[in-house]
Fold these 2 entries.
Entry 1:
Amino acid sequence: MQKETKKLFPKDFLWGASTSSHQVEGGNHNQWTIWEKENADYLAENAEKLLKWRWKTPVWPEIEKDAKDPQNYISGRGVDHYDKYKQDFDLLNKLNLNSFRFSLEWSRIEPEEGQWNQEAIDHYKSYISELKKRKVEPVLNIWHTSLPVWFAARGGFKHRRNLKYFKRYIHLIQKEFIHDIKYVITLNEPNIYATYGYLLGLWPPQQKNVVAMMRVYWNLVRAHKHAYYSLKMAKPSLQIGIAAQLANIQAKDPHDLSDELSTKIMRFAWNWWYLHITRREQDFIGINYYFTDYYDGWFKRKDPKLPINDLGWYMEPEGLYPLLLRAWAHYEKPIIITENGVADMHDQYRRWWLEETIVAMERAMSEGVIIKGYFHWSLLDNFEWSQGWWPRFGLVAVDRKHGMRRTIRPSAKWFASWISKL
Ligand code: BGC
């Protein structure tokens, strides 16, 4: 068994963890921090209603106090990762991880339109070189949800005319960072960003407008294509992709017309549309996998009630397998699992989730699918956007109330020893 596994996972397989700047750094000033301050009271007052509306949180009695506290919704000091990054990179070594995905915080690099902040640029340079010192492959994510205030104030990605600012930012990245980098993710989850911010009204700027959503989505296609060609021209060996949020979408009853058609339409609209039109501009297919969604009736989701994670999300880790096969069938490009994980404060599911995920990758690889890497979400407990601080995704727990103390969770220890045996 171990021998087989050895063959399936090549020596240079990227075993990594992911983070994003806004969710861990602390001390940011961007469109999210403004939104947090404006909405913390509302989110705290309506916590129970908001959580029950979508999913049922099995840990409600334990998290109620936090969820009803406005401070839960303020990213604030983050987990001090901006200052503690060296210490956090030591943890990567401890966990036997050979790669790390992180994002640059645009609002730090360009706090005012056209004004570059040399200190932030130097910070990220030293950040990358500290990873390399530890023999950890840096995977640079250009944009992960947060925006400079001035860019958001001009309408952000809703207006094509604003792409000129993004292009200028890409130019800076090209000049300052890519010489030391092999892997670039341009954008994180364009589908989630466009729908949560512009259709469902859950995230800033809280619009509910299909046209606005489509405009954002299209501009994110343009943004990616531009970034792809300009970075590739500067350094042809770069491997560039996006991190796509893909769900394993299934019909509850494959013989039922409404279940089956809803499934087909959702698979295309949610999973494949963006990747199809940018397929030439993807060197690898980056997959963020969390969800298996069952459709029962016209566009109605009905997932099994168990098992669920702390956020109430139905867990089917092996659902990664059909997704890997489909992604491979569509594009025949190497796949990197750019995010994958569970909100699990008691660490009761994470090891099982990891084990099932490894099996899903092995099955797909044994059938010829090329997978280059796996990045767990997340290295550290982090700020979970509109849910705030209570959901715990980290391989490493962070105690924000006691000096930001880091503690490696048992599941992570298991994962580290599993990797060491490869
Ligand atoms: C996002 C992360 C988020 C994670 C868990 C992904 O959709 O890229 O920012 O923390 O899911 O919800």
Note: The longest helix spans residues 210-234.
Entry 2:
Amino acid sequence: MTRIYFNDVVTRDGFQIEPEFIPTDTKVALIDELSLCGLTKIEVTSFTSAKAIPMLRDAEEVMGRIRRVPGVEYTVLVPNVRGAERALESHADELNLVMSISEMHNLANLRMPREKSFSELREVIAMAAGKVPVNVSLSTCFGCPMEGNVPHEEVVRWAERFAKLGVRGLTICDTTGMAHPAQVTRTAQTLRERFGALPLTFHFHNTRGMGLANVMAAAQAGIDRFDGSLGGLGGCPYAPGASGNISSEDAIHMLEAVGYDTGVDMHRLLAAARRLPQVVGHDVPGQVVKAGLTTDLYPRQRPSSN
Ligand code: COA
Ligand code: ZN
């Protein structure tokens, strides 16, 4: 069975767009619950400016209080040198650096041109060398809500610049749910041919209902690492109309159904997903949590007497 490695980003990508501050205790409890589900990685928080992402202003406290389970990696999103200093002090297992392939999205999200992001992130990679592995998440790889089409060659060009700096992996993000399966297949094939053994993760949003189709297309093209968010929460605050990540439990349920091994305990994951509406105060998009597993059987309904 082919192994798929799953990273849950609910407490970072999932929470960052929520309007009501989620208490630190609640974040810590959810991460501790996710730690027991068999996930490969958990993106705990981000070390961004509190003005930009007020929801994650408690990043240090969350990192300090979670119970780390051996075998699970605790990664954090880092946009600049200041963020990297904070992440290193918090003993993150990995720094997940971020920049956009589209210039306009980078300016909106990170308030700097791409070249400035690249030079900051190059400095971070040097700072982290020998201390902690670095992954780079490239946003808007499949389209930008402001620039439209993002040329395939641009994705390859930026991926190449980071690969040359010796990063441990790249995450190819569909930040605003613009990717479609044919595009995903092409991107996955090109990047796999170009970067050989460099681990590639694909990160999809279900904004236009194509999220799980994109996961399948990527998996069939040999991608074995995915990001997802419990309940399908999430979205980028700087992308108009952006909505949730693919739901981790729906994606894992599908991957297991078609024969991949994710190592995830679905019952535990669903128990965590079931509590999520209480945490955020509203319904969440995930579907399997509402319908149950395909392997759950229900008692036959008796025909009604009238
Ligand atoms: N952590 C904490 N504070 C930070 C910081 C970080 N990583 N980076 C900058 N700051 C602080 C500065 O110290 C400064 O504080 P001050 O006003 O008290 O002096 C303030 O934020 C502004 O600093 P500046 O360098 O001018 O940053 P900016 O306002 O241009 O914003 C980013 C740049 C990258 C910090 C900000 O846009 C950001 O955090 N973006 C993250 C967006 C994000 O996570 N989006 C979703 C993920 S895709
Ligand atoms: Zn995202």
Note: The chain is about 40% helix and 15% strand.
